[in-house]
């Protein structure tokens, strides 16, 4: 009986954990609101479309931003990385998605 209750409690906690990390968290940005919302939407779509291929997600993000906001965008999607970059002012986004992806997007001509 105790094992069944423990299993039920574990199952009930799992959706809370998934729900807790099911949102995107913008850590650092200097983009204007329109560009920021477009970039976040594109990043979330790319990560959801390619959950097992982060390189393809980064490529989709870069190509979409290149077509909408001009060339020279760079994107890194991964589970853990550090960075030090030079970027154009008002063109940086560093965010987390789904509790396991880090996304860095910037423009540098």
Question: Can you give keywords for this protein?
Answer:
4 strands; 109 residues; four-stranded antiparallel sheet
Low-confidence runs: none
Proportion of residues in helical segments: 40-55%
Distance between the termini: 64 Å
**Helix-strand pattern, N to C?**
HEHHEEE
Overall residue-averaged pLDDT value: 86
As a percent range, the share of strand residues is: 15-25%
Radius of gyration: 17 Å
Helices, by number, come to 3
Structural class label: alpha+beta
Largest sheet: spatial strand order: 1-3-4-2
Description:
The chain has a four-stranded antiparallel β-sheet, with helices on one face. With 109 residues, the chain is of the alpha+beta class. 48% of the residues lie in helices and 23% in strands. The model has no long low-confidence stretch (mean pLDDT 86). The termini are far apart. It has helices spanning 2-20, 33-49, 54-69, and strands at residues 24-29, 73-78, 92-97, 101-107. It contains three helices and four strands; from the N terminus they run αβααβββ. Helix 2 (33-49) packs antiparallel against helix 3.
């Amino acid at each position: 009986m105790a094992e069944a209750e423990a299993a039920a409690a574990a199952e009930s906690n799992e959706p809370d954990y998934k729900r807790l990390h099911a949102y995107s968290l913008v850590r650092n940005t200097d983009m204007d609101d329109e560009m920021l919302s477009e970039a976040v939407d594109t990043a979330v779509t790319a990560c959801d479309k390619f959950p097992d291929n982060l390189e393809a997600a980064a490529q989709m993000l870069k190509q979409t931003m290149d077509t909408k906001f001009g060339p020279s965008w760079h994107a890194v999607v991964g589970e853990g990385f550090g960075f030090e970059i030079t970027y154009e002012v008002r063109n940086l986004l560093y965010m987390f998605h789904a509790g396991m992806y880090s996304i860095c997007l910037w423009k540098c001509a």
